[in-house]
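Many introductory courses stop at the sequence. We go one step further.
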Amino acid sequence: MSDELMELAWSAGLYDGEGSTNGYPHPKRRIKVRVRQMHRGVLDRFAAAVKVGKVFGPHKNGKSPALVYEYSTSTADDAYAALNALWPFLSEQKKLQAIQAAENFETPFVDRRGRYARG
């Protein structure tokens, strides 16, 4: 296995345990891949392996005094690129989560009056 594939396999393991994919049809139509960690170096390694997205932080983590860093994609293209890079190594549960997020993102939003709304 090449070094690049080993890094992707490692990244998929991290993502399986600590990451998420969320898709939102409205009001801010987006799909995001995210991973949070207390150690920035872990996320820098992840970002280097998938070759898209950025690491932000540190940020306060809710009510916890701990500060966390967050890897996140900012565009649909980046989210899909990250998922495609990780896909061969992901668990079935994470693949299903990504598929559901993509379906949410791709689904047109219909308001209460039955009109399509812009995302």
